[in-house]
Every structure is written in structure tokens, then in C-alpha cells.
Amino acid sequence: MATQIFLNLPVKDLNRSVAFFTKLGYTFNPQFTDEKATCMIISDTIFVMLLTVPFFQTFTKKEIADAHKAIECSIALSADSKEAVDEMVDKAVAAGATIPNPATDHGFMYQHSFEDLDGHHWELVWMNPNGVPEHQG
After folding, report:
1. Beta carbons of 109 and 78 less than 8 angstroms apart
2. Which PROSITE patterns does UniProt cross-reference here (predicted)?
3. What are the DSSP calls for 49-70, one per residue?
4. In Å, how far from its chain's centre is CA 115?
């Protein structure tokens, strides 16, 4: 079996977050959904557990960062094209996301990002398989 990843994110309003990510085209696994959490399906091996802040807090004694004020991670997902990157960012903005930085085009790589309703940083990246520069030793 391939390794799966379950990214856990605290959210202030679960229903609002589900509505936001639904507008981006994501679906949710009802087996892992209740009033405290849901499992957003990114792919066959990538899942995002959206957990209410009080439920998330049960997994740690550390303070939960306010993603509007601090960043702990950047969630980066690949896309099939530059257009797919921009399409997802446009959907996110239409659903209420903010843009922290303009898109960047390095020729071999194109990236753009958004911050979701809870301030989590999402990066969309397209890599040109024929344009990756050779590593200089």
C-alpha cells in the first residue's frame, strides 16, 4: 500500500471551511466527518483533516498558532498546468481567500498561493518537466 498523508489543520468554523473547500472542487469522506472534524480528499493518498480548534487542541499541549498572524507550514500541491494553478487560486479568491503574494514564473516552475479562511497558506505549483535546470555541482 502506498504511504498516505493526513494533514491536520485547525479551523474556527467547520461548516464554513467545508463550504469554502467545496467551492474549490474538493469532496469529503463522510466516514470521517462529524461536528468536530471532516476528511477532505485531495487525492487517493492525500487527505486534509479539518478539525475544530477545540478538537485539534486535544491532540497537543502546545498553543495553536493563529495562521492569520504566524505561519508554521506552507501546504504545496502540484497542478497540471499554469492555467490550473491560476484557476484554483481564482476559485479560492472567489470563495473568500486572500492572496499573500503575486504569482511567480521561473520558466521551469510556476507558482501562486492563497490563504484560506483560517489563514493557512496554500501553494499551487506547476513544474515544466522539460524545463527543469540541470543541477550545477
Report:
1. no
2. VOC (PS51819)
3. EEEEHHHHHTT-SSPPP-TTT-
4. 8
Residues 6+ away with beta carbon under 8 Å from 96: 20, 117
CA gap 92, 53 in Å, rounded = 22
CA distance linking residue 109 with residue 125, whole number of Å: 7
Superfamily of domain 65-137: 2,3-Dihydroxybiphenyl 1,2-Dioxygenase, domain 1 (3.10.180.10)
CA distance 13 to 116: 12
Please answer whether residues 116 and 22 qualify as being in contact, where contact means their C-beta atoms are separated by less than 8 angstroms: no
Residues 114, 92 contacting (CB under 8 angstroms): yes
Establish whether domains 1-60 and 65-137 are of one fold.
yes
Domain residue ranges in the chain: 1-60, 65-137
pLDDT tens per residue, range 19-36 = 999 999 999 999 999 999
Interval 42-83: pLDDT, tens = 999 999 999 999 999 999 999 999 999 999 899 999 999 999
